[in-house]
């Protein structure tokens, strides 16, 4: 057709290719981001029909106002103890990220992924669920493990793929698996966990269990077919599941426009499926808690699934393999209009008189030391690339429950190669 | 693991559909964690009737219809397996399995490995496959080698009602994900390859005698369906019957081996047979290049080279999409098999 005659009486068609607000060196302007006042969104009953809460998919659940006061109907009115535990867990997550990021730079492992700026989307969400509710995370929800009390040294062992790594050094760093904390094995393939979480929730419903499931993906991977398959199944079977979309604006170098953000919100994806959709200030730990609790209560009451869009910002690179200064303005992070989740909750607690700067500074030092001790402890089990930490046989285990003949033969070959390469 | 018939049970005459239905019934009865799902499998009982009556017997939460989403069907099954259920999803035609393939390859097949055994995917994906029913390119494919190529998946293909039930029970009880391809051309009767002859019902075949109760045929164990000295023929599914018919018609002294499980493969039986006969023909309906026959040929060459008296031959479908009107020109039928046998036996 390219060579065919042009019909000159018609408008030529034009392809739209999305372009982000700013590229490196550009001034940053977030003035187009609509931020409703904290407390302004109504909180519907958990049993509401999704059709009667369409506005919730386009607004923003916010609890903490500009003065860091908790306001409005979504205020979860948490006791001081819970507020401080959320604050501490978010700070621990950040301290852990800082140190393990540096460990990668020091050559102790191959890869790391921080969740800086997004801590509330996992820590507060976990806080609002029961400890035995099943979570199907993506790769940036380490805050769930922090909240559920997973030993830091186990996490570092996994990151170092060392002799203490219970996953036998098979998984890329941070791809944890912790069934005892109802934490599913993380996949590097995007959004595959979505239909799995729906399936788990369906199984829980089939069995008349009381536990619900929750899953997370980024806004970029809502474009995957798995996301839409999961939404369809969740809708059809009224599955007791919470579907979290962490909209951190960036999928490596592709801004959210490449997942459809120029046209509508991600929470609005719920509407076509007849699922409840909530859009939440993801940097407001109290809003995330309140929205998650709302969705959890709804699921427990057999009222179905909720899609929660956490509107947030990926303050750092995608991973240690990424350099965001190559594709976005360095100022974006500092100028993100919804601030930082740890700073905001800290200021809120100070305002309540249950916290102060001195205690916060002391806590940060304590947490940094705690993480340091965990890494030291894990290093006793080795670091990646310095020696082989797993017996060669482990490479062939767990492909199947039992070792078939062809893997037995290949294992023998691997052991022979080992003997030839490393005679001792 | 030998063939086990655990409880003395009466034997009934079944076609392959009834045998598969019986296996599902037996397993649902024995294990509350077995659930069945797929397109049209519930109230209707499946487009090939393999799940007929099961929803009525076991209820809608254990046998249910699904959205038309193979990605969703497999992904949901993986999640159910993680919960502790033992799902048996049906993919209506093997030709439709591709939207679910990432959930099979990247998830089901890898859960055990990536979690060091903490999570498993004890799911059995049933799917009718193969041609011979004028299904055209979207209802005739044989994609088994896509799955045998994946570490962590087992692939099973029965050729008789008796085998179908025993193998399906083993597959459901297996703690690893199993792809269970059902040769739809022989659901209602074995097939000689002569499409213009009347269909012979299963009731005239000895393997239609199927125990009503629970029994297993172990995965990874082939079946020597005909003993012989001059040539080994490796086949599975529909092609077992076609190969047998050719051998009988031409009075060839062939040993015909029904592989039953492609992975794990019964290499011992293959090796012993080829070392005995010195000749090997591989027959499958799937396309030729990178088909499972290539793997079989390589294995035979590696293990039996000095016993071979002729090159290993493959008879397969052509490397084209499965055509509709030219189905019987595509199908690796008696002429193609007969010529290959003649070629091998000539040396």
Provide structural commentary.
Chain B: Its EC number is 1.2.4.4. The complex is a heterodimer of chains A (424) and B (347). In chain A, 35% of the residues lie in helices and 8% in strands. Chain A has 424 residues and is an alpha/beta fold. Chain A has 2 domains: 50-319 and 332-379, 3-Layer(aba) Sandwich (Rossmann fold); 392-421, no CATH class. In chain A, the strands form 2 sheets. A 5-stranded parallel β-sheet of chain A has the order 1-2-3-7-6, sandwiched between helices. Chain A has a two-stranded antiparallel sheet with strand order 4-5. In chain A, helix 7 (285-300) links the parallel strand 6 (276-281) and strand 7 (306-311). In chain A, helix 1 packs antiparallel against helix 9 (341-352) and helix 2 (119-127) crosses helix 7. The longest helix of chain A is centred in the N-terminal third of the chain and has 26 residues, at 80-105. The N and C termini of chain A lie far apart (68 Å). The model of chain A has no long low-confidence stretch (mean pLDDT 96). In chain B, helix 1 runs parallel beside helix 7 and helix 3 runs parallel beside helix 4 (101-108). Chain B starts with a strand and ends with a helix. The mean pLDDT of chain B is 96. With 347 residues, chain B is an alpha/beta fold. Chain B is built from 12 helices and 16 strands. Chains A and B meet through helix 5 and helix 6 of A and helix 3, helix 4 and helix 5 of B.
